[in-house]
Amino acid sequence: MQPAQLQALKEWFIRYVRVFYSDDPAVQDGIHLKEAHTGRVCEEMRLLGNSLHLEAADLNLAEAVALLHDVGRFKQYATYRTFNDRRSENHALLGIRELAGTGALSGLPAEEENLITKAVEYHNRRELPHPLPERQSLFARLIRDADKLDILYLFTESLARENQKPNRALNSALPNTPGYSPVLIHNLLQGRLCRYDDMKNYNDRKLLMLSWVYDINFPWTLAEINRRGYLEKILDGLPATGEIRQAGERLRAAVTRKTVRPAPGAGMTAGTGS
Ligand SMILES: [Fe+2]
Asked: Which InterPro entries does the record cross-reference, listed alphabetically (predicted)?
């Protein structure tokens, strides 16, 4: 993708989002939340792409995917006043309908239009379809990592502010009751991704966020999760049980295993993940 094409998409996005601006502060807060999220995911995407030495055209394409990955969120919030897909509709599918309906991607080569559309469609799936063509897989894995990194930022920020102003949009309105559900801690102890449908309270949400470590694709992303202290910030807010401590140890071991490069001459370099 050429820089001018990315610039045109950015201008399209600004015009598109402006339509959803509202005098109702409750609506405007939601629109602004996703606008700011989009901006940060674009920055994370550039950093991630640079870590992989993507060429300039692919970096631009990756940023376009980041720019548009949550385009469905604006209409979703304006229509349903929620970001909960289960209580409204799948925002990724809503997004690709909006892209198609507005012709936002119509000036692009068909291959790029297809890569963007598929990456947006797949960004919030529990698992990527398998197998995927190599470039579809690359851009889908990129956006999934960049998106998770910013959601972890938002989530840990909201934990820090929890007592002052809980963010209902982020904690899915789950009750802040003591304890956590056995199925989530079990998944975490097994090194598996947790399921949204299993969450019963806010602690379960924290366990689910931790389990994202097992669904990260690139070493750079894990290294950033580690460097920014997201795991510790979430673990600190959970009950101090033996299970939680064990889960924390397993998470830290997984991060170390996937981010630390072997010493020179050891014959292998850290993989890019799958
Ligand atoms: Fe999304």
From this structure: HD/PDEase_dom (IPR003607), HD_domain (IPR006674)
- Tokens representing 113 are 């239009």
Contacts by 258-261, CB closer than 8 A, 24 or more apart: 258/216, 258/219, 258/222, 259/219, 259/222, 259/223, 259/226
d(CA 92, ligand 1 centre) in Å:
6
- Prior bond to 131 cis, omega within 30? yes
CATH 3.40.50.2000 is the classification of domain 3-145:
no
Domain boundaries, the chain: 3-145, 174-259
The pLDDT tens digits for 48-104 are: 999 999 999 999 999 999 999 999 999 999 999 999 999 999 999 999 999 999 999
Alpha helices (runs of H) in the chain, residue ranges in sequence order: 3-18, 25-51, 56-68, 72-80, 91-102, 110-122, 134-161, 182-189, 202-211, 219-227, 230-235, 242-259
What SS3 state is found at 215? helix
pLDDT digits (tens, 9 = 90+) for 166-214: 555 555 678 999 999 999 999 999 999 999 999 999 999 999 999 999 9
Cα(101) to ligand 1 centroid in Å equals 19
Asked if residue 96 lies in contact with residue 114, where contact means CB atoms within 8 angstroms, the answer is: no
For residue 262, how far is its CA from the centre of ligand 1 (angstroms)?
35
In contact, 254 and 221? CB cutoff 8 Å: no
- 150 Cα–ligand 1 center, Å: 11
Looking up tokens 């990456």 gives 119
Q: Residue 130 has which token pair?
A: 């398998």
